[in-house]
Write a structure and sequence with these properties.
The complex is a heterodimer of chains A (285) and B (100). Chain A has one domain: Alpha-Beta Barrel (TIM Barrel), CATH 3.20.20.140. Chain A has 10 helices and 8 strands. In chain A, helix 1 links the parallel strand 1 and strand 2. Chain B has 100 residues and is mostly helical. In chain B, helix 3 runs antiparallel to helix 4. Classes of the chains: A alpha/beta (285), B mainly alpha (100). Bound molecules: zinc ion (ZN). The site of zinc ion has 7 residues of chain A, from loops.
Chain lengths: 285, 100
């Protein structure tokens, strides 16, 4: 089955992973800007990162026939540095209209601090001014419920925010209802210990339905599994869910959300395959 | 909601050994905690109480055990947080010079 991984940090993965996920059926990835494992020292560090996300990663993904999309921001962890954050936010418009950029993200909260909240709102402000989609990171573990509520409070207090243009990520059993009730899109991250397992994600789908929801691997430089989405597909198959339902969650839903971005262009895999084979030299056929 | 396709007995057949294994894993871990030195200090750790509350929820009925356990391991939310954090002076400026 073809699928899309709507949240994966490919800059932290090797080219072999692109090849591996392509073989599992991945046709597109979306890569939010995130924390590199250390705090960057200057706005130029982010400028280089945004160039990597918008210039090199799409090329590298293309080597495996994968379409690459990205999101720009300064992540919640580094948002503690308000001065640097403001410089980064000011620089985002330089990159926002590059092909493959889907919007502002992954913004959010990490430790639910005052500075994180201020910078979150400034990102939302930028997204509203530029009419961009928003991808939101919710905190981990004990901070998640409180942080998700705080994020929703901030979004709901801004009348310009249209919930259907916002994706709240890393939802679990205790936060999925909060996001869905208010009309936001949401996503579940398949992480072995700290987030959702494929079976719990499948349970959440059975309990909350398959509208406005997707799953991702959030594969990054930490313990994570870049082929977690196929594990989820397999779990739903084992439970006897029809292929059309599964496809809706792992393929149609991400496309429906991304299509709200005016720059979004996507070539369906069958069209792409025809184009590639047409471009092959005759002797290779 | 999309209906679960399997019946409860089917789910049970498929998950019985898995649940058994996971309960054993928890039991063995709790044994290991008690066997090791300074077990009292762990019992005084508020996180240990969270574990105990989680185990109590496992024995209850209903459809929301997972969400309830998540809530036990969650920080308290203060609905007045915004007033405390975001005083007017600190709210983001409404029009930074951003090109469209
Ligand atoms: Zn991420």
């Amino acid at each position: 089955m073809y699928y899309i991984d709507p949240h994966i940090h490919m800059v932290s993965r090797v080219t072999d992973d692109y090849e591996r996920i392509a073989r599992m059926g991945c046709v597109a990835v979306s890569e939010p800007a995130f924390w590199a494992g250390f705090d960057r020292g200057s706005v130029d560090g982010f400028r280089d990162y945004f160039r990597q996300l918008t210039e090199f990663e799409p090329k590298r993904a293309g080597w495996s026939g994968i379409q690459h999309y990205t999101w720009l921001c300064i992540n919640a962890k580094e948002a503690e540095n308000v001065e640097l954050s403001r410089e980064v936010i000011k620089m985002i418009p330089e990159f926002i209209n590059k092909p493959g950029v889907l919007g502002i993200g992954e913004i959010g909260l990490n430790k639910n601090t005052k500075n994180e909240s201020i910078i979150f709102q400034e990102h939302v402000q930028l997204a509203m001014q530029l009419d961009e989609l928003i991808l939101i990171h919710t905190p981990h573990l004990q901070d998640k419920l409180k942080g998700t509520r705080m994020i929703i409070d901030m979004l709901m207090s801004d009348r310009r925010v249209q919930p259907e243009r916002v994706l709240i990520d890393h939802v679990e059993e205790h936060t999925v209802g909060l996001a869905k009730e208010e009309g936001f899109w949401c996503a579940m991250t398949l992480y072995p210990i700290t987030k959702c397992t494929p079976s719990r994600a499948a349970d959440i789908i059975e309990a909350y339905g398959d509208d406005r929801i997707m799953v991702n691997s959030a594969g990054d430089w930490g313990p994570s599994n870049p082929i977690a989405v196929p594990d989820f597909i397999q779990e739903l198959r084992k439970r006897g869910h029809p292929e059309s339902k599964i496809k809706k969650i792992v393929y149609d839903n991400p496309l429906e959300f991304f299509r709200q971005c005016r720059r979004f262009e996507f070539t369906p895999p069958d069209v792409l395959a025809d184009a590639v084979s047409a471009a092959e030299p005759v002797s290779a056929k | 909601m999309i209906a679960a396709v399997q019946t409860s007995p089917e789910v049970f057949e498929q998950t019985f050994l898995l649940v058994r294994a996971r309960i054993l894993e928890i039991a063995a871990t709790l044994d290991r905690l008690d066997r090791a030195e300074a077990a009292e200090s762990v019992r005084a750790d508020p996180r240990f109480r969270q574990i105990q509350q989680g185990l109590e929820i496992l024995l209850s009925d209903g459809f929301h055990r997972a969400a309830q356990i998540q809530e036990i391991f969650s920080d308290q939310y203060d609905p007045t947080w915004m007033k405390k954090y975001l005083t007017t002076g600190e709210r983001p400026a409404l029009s930074p010079s951003v090109p469209h």
